[in-house]
Q: What sequence folds into this?
């Protein structure tokens, strides 16, 4: 039994010692959200009407969370569908009509009514506010087992004319508004 | 052979799980979605429940306390809980209880590991040597002193211990630890956690613990109580959408204990003898739990487990198989009512060997328990006064129908003050041995010309034996003047009826289990935590207990009342300090005073002296994923006696222990 256990421990040491590269310091929740936003864009198709011409930039907008803008700035060196990424901070939802992705912070009063205004515009709305996806929002971040996951409301996305790839839908922890 | 195969299978699975996550801070933007979903943002799965608002005497041992304690097992950790009496009989044997009635077979404490009861159903009590968990994977240990029968059921008479392990999602990656010392011959753990897909997490572990023997009090010879155990297990946690979460977990263990059993009765001269041998302990269990959330204010849980244990002793070999099914539903009703109700079913089947020392009739039997409970927490005055009413209803094969109600009040006069009070009834249901056992207590050799045969005197099981009953009155006060200081006080008065006694109609008649002892216990428990600076945390606990028992029918010459009264220390003090010398260097000190035990054993006619101990350890993290610790336990004296077992074990002194441990996480 002794030898057997020793063997096990040695094996474990060997396998894991060789395969695992160590993780550096953990990214913050804000960094993680920024990375999510960028990744979502890869799986979403906006209608042509969302861009005035081939030179139009891809706009990621932030409303109600100024601190978050800083975490998005590294994205400006990247592109979405060969379009340059521009980060904008808005002070009211009326300014947000040029956004392609709109991140909404936690401190917006009457968010649900405000979203009505954007309902048919091709803007992917993202927030972690409770019931966001259950009402007028499209993608809602949810904490699950200490990780950041997301819910998608497909009906709201359809109404806005944006198409979400099935691969993204399959990664969502829940998809709402699916036609039966 | 089977075990070897299973362990090998476990290893193969471990090997197949190749680590998936490799990342650095800069390139988090370059990760794909699957990788992003694996990154843990908050470290704790569930936040510690707000202890302040629990209308019961609760104490929680959290991750930091476990890490700082230097403890190598659950019993050692429990020594820090005020109101518990934790004593070591020998290397593998413990006597642990809450609020009195300590003994090897202390039977008024319910212990659960991840919702699985480890109270030995047919024999009363908990065998601590087989209750092993990887301490690094423990989320917290909740200890409630006093009755918890309404929610937890029979045998939660004087307290409940809930060991809660971390979710698999909180133990991702590997951990290898190896430790060794003079008493701790070997402690080795290997754990690996991985994510199988976006919604499923798992971990596997292997664990090995070997402890050396102590010495007997009498002649300082080898107590021959060294032992070892090997254990493996797994836990899987998953989600189906946001409303359903599930858990499947299991463990498998096998161990060998050396024991010097003295004395045991035999049928041949010299009739009473010491027996030395190696005895097997093995078992396995599997549990599945499903939690369904219907809304913000309503959630249900369904749990099923199977538990198999087999234990050899010099005087008995016993096997227990338990199947348990539990349903629970919590919901809010009309804003003021927080209701939880549930149904339970338990089937236990047992097998016992027959020896001259002990037997049970029939050898194999099975018992069923049906239960239901309901509890309503009513907000009487918003944010001010809460009233909790509840009861458990249970039917078991021995004592029939049992009702265990409680009423609790919590008052919040100000934000940082809480007062609570409760009255509850709880029962300890009969065990198989009290119902249908036989234990030899004396053999009278043949008397020439008078009696050519030996005469065997036994204690006999009694089908009329009924439940022990408790009515408990408790009050408590908590004060949290600031983040860095807290006070917690609990007072209790317990009134017991129908406690187990050895009855006899006349001095020449048969001795059998009866319910004739009654008595009163009162006491207090106090804890204060104080963190004067960010590098120092201290905790002081004090507990007092006074026990008065009487048995109007005592005829047997065995003074059971004196044993109950004398087996718990009147005063206990624990003082802990955790000092962060540097960010990666921690010093922990832990002193304890335990009062004298006047009498804890039938066989010994001397007390267990009071003692003061000091544990100290240094934890050093030279790099992030490596920790070295040096631990000393019982540093003040070479060795001391903590408890004398009721029978079968020679008084054994608990020696000083020094060990070093290396923990590597990756």
A:
């Amino acid at each position: 039994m002794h030898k057997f256990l020793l063997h096990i421990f040695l094996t474990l040491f060997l396998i894991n010692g060789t395969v695992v590269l160590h993780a550096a310091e953990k990214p913050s929740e804000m960094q993680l959200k920024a990375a999510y936003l960028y990744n979502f864009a890869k799986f979403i198709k906006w209608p042509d009407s969302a861009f005035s011409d081939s030179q139009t930039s891809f706009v990621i907008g932030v409303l109600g969370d100024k601190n978050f803008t800083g975490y998005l700035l590294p994205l400006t060196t990247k592109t979405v569908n060969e379009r340059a990424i521009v980060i904008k901070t808005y002070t009211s939802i009326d300014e947000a009509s040029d956004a392609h992705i709109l991140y909404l912070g936690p401190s917006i009063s009457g968010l649900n009514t405000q979203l009505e205004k954007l309902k048919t515009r091709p803007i992917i709305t993202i927030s972690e506010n409770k019931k966001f996806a259950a009402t007028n929002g499209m993608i809602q971040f949810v904490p699950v087992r200490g990780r950041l996951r997301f819910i998608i409301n497909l009906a709201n996305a359809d109404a806005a004319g944006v198409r979400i790839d099935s691969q993204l839908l399959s990664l969502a922890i829940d998809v709402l508004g699916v036609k039966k | 052979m089977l075990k070897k195969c299973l362990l090998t299978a476990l290893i193969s699975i471990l090997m197949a799980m190749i680590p998936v996550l490799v990342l650095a801070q800069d390139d988090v933007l370059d990760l794909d979605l699957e990788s992003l979903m694996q990154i843990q943002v908050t470290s704790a799965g569930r936040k510690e429940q707000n202890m302040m608002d629990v209308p019961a005497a609760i104490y929680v041992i959290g991750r930091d306390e476990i890490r700082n304690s230097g403890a190598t097992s659950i019993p050692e950790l429990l020594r820090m809980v005020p109101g518990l009496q934790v004593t070591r009989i020998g290397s593998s044997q413990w006597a642990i209880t809450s609020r009195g009635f300590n003994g090897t077979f202390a039977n008024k404490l319910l212990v659960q590991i991840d919702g699985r009861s480890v109270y030995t159903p047919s024999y009363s009590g908990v065998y601590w040597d087989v209750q092993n968990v990887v301490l690094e994977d423990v989320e917290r240990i909740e200890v409630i002193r006093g009755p918890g029968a309404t929610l937890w059921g029979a045998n939660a008479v004087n307290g409940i211990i809930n060991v809660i392990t971390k979710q698999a999602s909180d133990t991702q990656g590997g951990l290898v630890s190896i430790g060794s010392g003079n008493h701790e011959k070997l402690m080795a753990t290997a754990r690996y956690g991985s994510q199988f897909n976006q919604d499923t997490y798992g971990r596997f572990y292997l664990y090995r613990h070997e402890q050396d023997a102590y010495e007997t009090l009498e002649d300082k010879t080898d107590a021959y109580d060294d032992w070892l155990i090997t254990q493996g297990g797994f836990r899987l946690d998953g989600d189906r959408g946001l409303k359903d979460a599930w858990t499947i977990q299991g463990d498998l263990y096998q161990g060998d204990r050396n024991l010097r059993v003295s004395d045991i009765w035999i049928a041949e001269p010299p009739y009473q003898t010491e027996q030395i041998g190696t005895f097997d302990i093995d078992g396995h269990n599997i549990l599945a739990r499903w939690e369904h959330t219907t809304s913000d204010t309503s959630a249900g849980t369904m749990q099923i487990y199977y538990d198999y244990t087999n234990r050899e002793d010099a005087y008995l070999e016993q096997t227990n198989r338990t199947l348990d099914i539990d349903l629970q539903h919590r919901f809010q009703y009309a804003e003021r009512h927080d209701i939880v109700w549930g149904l339970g079913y338990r089937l236990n089947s047992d097998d016992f060997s027959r020896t001259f020392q002990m037997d049970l009739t029939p050898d194999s039997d099975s018992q069923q328990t049906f239960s239901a409970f309901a509890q309503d927490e009513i907000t009487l005055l918003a944010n001010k006064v809460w009233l909790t009413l509840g009861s458990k209803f249970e039917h078991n094969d021995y004592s029939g129908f049992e009702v265990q109600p409680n009423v609790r009040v919590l008052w919040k006069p100000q934000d940082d003050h809480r007062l609570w009070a409760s009255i509850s009834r709880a029962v300890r249901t009969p065990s198989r041995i009290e119902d249908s056992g036989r234990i030899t207590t004396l053999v009278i050799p043949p008397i020439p010309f008078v009696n050519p045969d030996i005469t065997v005197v036994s204690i006999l099981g009694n089908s009329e034996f009924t439940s022990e009953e408790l009515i408990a009155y408790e009050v408590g006060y908590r004060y949290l003047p600031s983040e860095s200081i807290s006070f917690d006080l609990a007072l209790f008065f317990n009134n017991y009826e129908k406690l187990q006694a050895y009855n006899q109609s006349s001095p020449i008649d048969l001795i059998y289990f009866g319910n004739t002892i009654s008595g009163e216990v009162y006491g207090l428990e106090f804890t204060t935590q104080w963190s004067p600076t960010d590098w120092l945390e201290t905790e002081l606990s004090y507990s007092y207990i006074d026990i008065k028992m009487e048995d109007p029918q005592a005829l047997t010459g065995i003074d059971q009342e004196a044993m109950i009264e004398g087996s718990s220390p009147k005063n206990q003090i624990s003082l802990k300090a955790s000092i962060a010398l540097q960010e990666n260097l921690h010093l922990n000190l832990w002193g304890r005073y335990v009062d004298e035990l006047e009498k804890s054993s039938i066989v010994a006619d001397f007390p267990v002296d009071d003692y003061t101990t000091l544990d100290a350890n240094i934890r050093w993290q030279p790099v992030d994923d490596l920790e070295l610790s040096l631990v000393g336990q019982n540093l003040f004296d070479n060795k001391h006696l903590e408890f004398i077992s009721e029978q079968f074990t020679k008084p054994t002194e608990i020696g000083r222990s020094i060990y070093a441990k290396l923990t590597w996480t990756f």
